[in-house]
Design goal:
This protein is about 70% helix and about 0% strand. It has 10 helices and 2 strands, in the order ααααβαααβααα. α2 packs antiparallel against α3 and α5 (about 155-165) packs antiparallel against α9 (about 235-265). Keywords: Lipid biosynthesis, Lipid metabolism, Membrane, Phospholipid biosynthesis, Phospholipid metabolism, Transferase, Transmembrane, Transmembrane helix.
């Protein structure tokens, strides 16, 4: 009977159970900032459901600021990772796709019932498609260096902050009556189309990597003044920034066409092009 049920004895050379390697703190900090932005976006939805639209808008603005910070912190600390990139995309969909759509639906689009909800869905889905396309374009090895100065379509934070222009105007005294709900609906639909469009918009990511020494102090003064204006007159500044951004879209598209023509003119001719010219 002892041969049928031999006693268990582990092998002396049996490999030890695998342990996960510790994660550096520099990899965790950017993801924590991203999660804080998600918390702000979800809190904005809750505030909108409670009828507190002003703090809801401020929460979205704060989420947009954190969205601009987390990537730069990750690059500064050399803590970029594929996990962080995917988490950032999911956070952008929540903060700049779902949250603004739900806020505007609760604010004014609910007066149009199902039609208003359909447009809110279109905006959220357009933001998801825009983020998916952005992630795919990052993996394109043939993308020219100068194209990093431009986004394809309206970026997610800009789309979220711009689409809330009806809220800014309402806070400034322009009453958003139920009769104006169709205007807000059309405006939201236009922004959704701009988000998924191929219209180039200026990004500014590669501008200002090095600043001349004589411009340092003026930049500090202008930054402090802009921050003070934003704190003192938040909705006036947000409304002006939204209108200014919309007006600047044709300028960015024109600049993109000029850069594309210059790139095509200076690009070396390929053998196929020389054969066709002959």
């Amino acid at each position: 009977m002892d041969d049928l049920f031999p006693p268990f004895a582990p092998e002396p050379n049996e490999p030890k159970p695998r342990r996960f390697k510790p994660v550096p703190v520099r990899m965790i900090i950017p993801n924590m900032i991203t999660l804080m932005a998600v918390c702000l976006g979800l809190t904005a939805v809750r505030l909108a459901f409670e009828g507190k639209f002003e703090p809801a808008v401020i929460a979205i603005v704060a989420a947009a600021v954190l969205d601009g910070v987390d990537g730069r912190v990750a690059r500064l600390l050399k803590g970029t990772s594929r996990f962080g990139a995917e988490l950032d995309s999911l956070a952008d969909f929540v903060n700049f796709g779902c949250a603004p759509a739900l806020i505007l639906y609760t604010f004014v689009l609910h007066n149009l019932k199902s039609l208003g909800w359909i447009v809110a869905l279109i905006f959220a889905i357009a933001m998801a498609l825009r983020l998916a396309r952005f992630n795919v374009m990052l993996d394109d090895p043939n993308r020219p260096e100068w194209k990093k100065d431009f986004f394809v379509g309206m970026p997610a934070p800009a789309g979220a902050l711009t689409v809330m222009l009806p809220l800014y105007l309402h806070f400034l005294g322009f009453e958003m009556a139920p009769s104006l709900a169709p205007v807000a609906l059309i405006y939201m639909l236009v922004i959704a189309l701009m988000v998924i469009s191929t219209v180039p918009t200026f990004s500014g990511k590669t501008v200002g990597k090095r600043v001349p020494r004589e411009y340092v102090l003026p930049i500090f003064v202008v930054t402090v003044a802009a921050f003070g204006l934003l704190i003192s007159f938040p909705f006036e500044i947000l409304a002006l920034l939204s209108l200014g951004y919309l007006c600047a879209i044709p300028v960015g598209a024109n600049q993109y066409r000029r850069r594309a023509k210059l790139d095509a003119a200076t690009a070396p001719a390929t053998p196929g092009d020389e054969a066709s010219a002959a």
